[in-house]
Amino acid sequence: MTDTVKHMKWWGWGNDGVGFHHEDKPGFAPFVAEKVGLDLHTAERAVEPSFDDLDVPASTAPEAFVSALAGIVGDDHVSVDDLVRVIHTYGKSLRDLVRIRGNQILRSPDVVVYPADEAEVQQVVDAAVAADAVIIPFGGGSNIAGSLEPMPAETRTVVSLDLGRMRAVVDIDTDSGLARIQAGAQGPDLEAQLNSTGWTIGHFPDSFTHSTVGGWVATRSTGMQSDKYGDIADIARGLRVVRPGDVLVLRPLPSTSSGPSVREMILGSEGRLGVITEVTVQVHRVPEKRNIFAYFFPTWEAGITAMQAISESDASPSITRVSDAHETGFTMATSKTRSGFSKFTAETALPRIMKAKGWDLDKICLSFIGYEGSTAHAKHQKKLVDAIVKKHGGMGVGEGPGLLYDQKKFDTPYLRDFLLDMGAAGDVSETAAPWSKLLQVHDAVYAAADKAYAEIGVTGWIMSHLSHSYHSGACLYFTFAFVFQDDPLSEYDTVKNAIQQAFVDNDATISHHHGVGREHAPWLEEDISSEGVKVLTALFESADPGAHFNPDKVVAD
């Protein structure tokens, strides 16, 4: 084992306590062993990490500046502590975790500040700009696109502005279905506050348990139920953004023709235009009925065609998701241990029915489709969808698998941490493309990944699902895994770069909902054209001429 991998393994951000243990899933270990050459029963498990082993760059924040910040937010809400600064150094991408575990921290924030309200944010921003410091807004720290890290060459004082104290649902306009929410409110907290009065935001990204509404806006997030509720770009109606000297205020209007959309400029800006302090979002009454049903399709092509037909129909489900054969195999191999009638149905009766239909069990694709609203509405939606599924050769298998999917929907990202404990990579890339390009994109990404695996000399794995449908196209979400060899980050770059390049080479976007940050910036010009990059550069330079707000993200300064 190389020194780099050893370094990674001692920083053991394991998965204990989050509901996933491979011992509970008998099929998981042999599945992983077969597909990526890793036997979880014999692999060396990461040891308990020691923070003392990290080389943390010393804070360079002047004492007078730290004292000034403490005068704004209070002594208890300013920190130059090494552990606090490391926590605010990176997000949660595989690259971030490898660097932490490998003791690769070239630059950390010099001071972390926790304001209590917008007035304190304004004072912190003004003090930082006056001191020629850098401000990096911090929400839940779940970003995986490199949007949070300070640049290694940055010589100015770096302030991580953590909005964690600002997490309240301020007000709900019940006539309009609009809720004012402080930007630091994390998913579970804001949803609990809304649910207590009968409302829901309907936005549930994979990172829901650790991400914030401000972060969702800053990265143009998408939730699992976006087919019904829309992306955050549809949900966020009003914004308050602190800038030097004043607050940019966008009222929550249903629609407006007020020139180029400043709201759209803030969406996806990743902190480069100011600090988002409050978001007014469209909320909905908690639905009377909510069901997720499972379906199978004989092939990936049939599943994609069915999802397109649903998007073009009168049906309006909340979720339209279909996994390709690889992901379906993974899901079935890692499902709960069954017994009795459930075991017979899943392992004997269902395969027998599929074979009788002439299906190749190595090509079947699992789908989850959700329905929400009144009981009558949900029933009607399901009837419309069932007819489409049948027309495209699919079959329904009931609500049971859908209930399990709903219970475990936030667990999947932890598989990456679990594999990393064993010296293996597990990561994701997602994109969106027109319906006419989806199959081409899917096949091209598989070919690119396989070529990259061969280049670094590993047995790799890749799988995919369609996760969000639109009238003109859909999102494809890819998960890939392989065992590290001698140079983890270089090997990761080889695979990740191949996948990203396959996106733009086949008319797909570089990211559907993870943002740009540093991770996807190399492909931005191919995505939006050189003139598009010029426009963005001009926007950032004119709005922030001193490069105080999260510099070098989205486009390099």
Could you give a quick summary of the protein structure above?
The chain is an alpha+beta fold and 557 residues long. It has helices at residues 3-10, 28-36, 63-73, 82-87, 94-101, 118-130, 187-195, 213-219, 226-229, 232-235, 262-266, 300-312, 325-333, 340-356, 375-391, 400-408, 414-421, 438-456, 488-505, 524-528, 530-543, and strands at residues 78-79, 111-113, 134-138, 158-162, 169-173, 178-182, 199-200, 236-243, 246-250, 275-282, 284-285, 289-297, 319-323, 365-373, 395-398, 424-434, 461-469, 473-483.
Question: Would you give an account of this structure?
Answer:
- This protein is α+β, with helices and mostly antiparallel strands and 557 residues long.
- Among the domains are: 114 residues, Uridine Diphospho-n-acetylenolpyruvylglucosamine Reductase, domain 2, CATH 3.30.43; 117 residues, Uridine Diphospho-n-acetylenolpyruvylglucosamine Reductase, domain 3, CATH 3.30.465; 120 residues, FAD-linked oxidase, cap domain/gating helix (Vanillyl-alcohol Oxidase, Chain A, domain 3, 3-Layer(aba) Sandwich), CATH 3.40.462; 38 residues.
- It contains 21 helices and 18 strands.
- Strands 15-12-14-13-17-18-16 form a seven-stranded antiparallel β-sheet, with helices on both faces.
- Helix 3 runs antiparallel to helix 6.
- The longest helix is centred in the C-terminal third of the chain and has 19 residues.
- The chain is globular and about 75 Å long.
- It holds the Pfam family FAD-oxidase_C.
- GO terms for molecular function: alkylglycerone-phosphate synthase activity; FAD binding; oxidoreductase activity.
- Keywords: FAD, Flavoprotein, Oxidoreductase.
- Its cofactor is FAD.
